[in-house]
Amino acid sequence: MKDFNFKIPQNIQFGMGSLKKLPEILAENHSDNILLVSDRGLEKIGVVKKVQDIIEAAGLKCTSYLDVVPNPTVAVVNEATALYKECGATSIVALGGGSSMDVGKAVGVLVNYGGKITDYEGNHKVPGPIVPMIAIPTTAGTGSEVTASAVITDTERNYKLSVFSYEILPKYAVLDPELIMTAPASIAASCGVDALIHAMEAYVSRNATPFSDAMAEKAMELIGGNLRRFVANRQDEEAACAMMLGSTFAGIAFANNRLGDIHAMSHPVSAFFHVAHGVANAVLMPTIFEFNALAADERYANIYQYI
Length: 307
Fold this sequence. Notes:
Blueprint: E1 11-14, H1 22-28, E2 33-37, H2 40-44, H3 47-57, E3 61-65, H4 74-87, E4 91-96, H5 98-113, E5 122-123, E6 133-137, E7 149-154, E8 159-164, E9 172-175, H6 185-204, H7 210-224, H8 227-232, H9 237-255, H10 261-273, H11 277-292, H12 298-306
Parallel strand pairs: 1-9, 2-3, 2-4, 4-6, 5-8, 6-9
Antiparallel strand pairs: 7-8
Helix pairs in contact: 4-5, 6-7, 6-9, 6-11, 7-9, 10-11
């Protein structure tokens, strides 16, 4: 067996209603001035106000940046960074899907180290820790709450750049399945497929380890057994819990491993044609998995059993 290492440096809180523990988490970080990073869709359905109320009821200041868009751009990161500095925030709460969490990570880099987010493109270019960040996912899909990367669209190049560094991992993740139970069916489906592909690609990767296998296998079991059920009825509490945990386990799997050609090819599709990331992955998955089957071993049979 080859040598390997793995990291899970975060504190993760899971459970129905666990959002109410947010003030305790902020107090641990001595954070009394928060920039809440989210989007207008979550504002419209009342999720943003729910989080704002919890923060403010604890006597903490909360300023919100709500212009995050799918496939967030360099301009969005710059706007959110300017607001962070203007309001004197000391920590970030990223509420939403991967887009909000990626913007939160990028802001955390720029407020500590300056420059442009393009300066940090690539691997391990962030020189040290970012500001404390709490990730609160509202979709079961990206796994961004436990991953060391932020993907930002550079519209000047029609290119999705990736910043990879363990320094940008959110310090805390709050996994409250209640927050994914308001997602439209289309969002639940595309995000769920994204999470499933995270687990699958990590599992068949040549960099797979016993640790990443364990995370990927449990993720495939949870997602494979509940994705259709959750899309059909987002109010199914058991399915929502399984999808939330499965997405996070899949994120841990590929954070300690790597992804494959599905993700490599879906990034330019999203950058050029503004296709939702999960949808691009879903379109590419059958063809790429058929191609990879040329070298398939018993792992393909195992995936079949898990899902």
